[in-house]
Amino acid sequence: MRRGISMPGEQWVGESVLASAAMGWRTIRCIACRKYRFARTRTMKKLYETAAFAYFLIATVSLLISAFVLMGYALWEIAGGILATDLNSVNRVRSALDGVGLMIIGFAVVEAGTFIAEEELIRKRELRSTRESRRSITKFITIIVIAASLEALVMVFKTGREAIPAVIYPAALFASAMLALVALGAYQWLSSSVERGGDDFPQPPA
User: Fold this and answer.
1) Phi and psi dihedrals of 71, rounded to 5?
2) What is the pLDDT of residues 152-187, one digit of tens each?
3) Burial group, residue 26, by CB count within 10 angstroms (0-12, 13-18, 19+)
4) Are 63 and 112 in contact (CB under 8 A)?
5) Which of 89, 104, 127 is the last residue of a domain?
6) Is pTM, for the whole model, over 0.70?
7) Please, where are the H alpha helices in the chain?
8) Are 138 and 121 in the same domain?
């Protein structure tokens, strides 16, 4: 046998080695690409979660600060209306009712901030059960109903002293609040079947 002439068996072994090397290289590249994509996705998800957390934190703090500012201004209006000597009784009552209306708005604002803090900052949304989601929606709608009802009550007192025909506007607001309450009851009744069938998500660990 002369040198420089390879046998068919040796050529087949060489091609197999090259094919195995190429396949191994492609596998390594595929694994590296998957790891890179996973790391990039994880980084983007973490960045989004951090940005969302910062946004909700700033929003919650801003709402609480706004609520305290409204409460302070409301107390100032109430005290000014009661202690003012240059106003008659009607204007004093009107100023006091304006302050009460501001306090009601502040109540709604602070409750909204508390709701956001509980849902977005304290709890883990992915661990919530269907029952907890229903309670969260119920609490939020209840806040709206209470705030609207109190505001309608204040408007009734104000318009009742100024113009009787204008009472229709607070009455419409109160009717809207009651309609929202009825809608909440319908939602509770429709979603009760979910609780009877079991939660869709696991309960968070104690």
Assistant:
1) -65, -45
2) 887 887 777 666 777 888 888 889 989 988 998 888
3) exposed
4) yes
5) 127
6) no
7) 8-83, 89-116, 130-162, 168-197
8) no
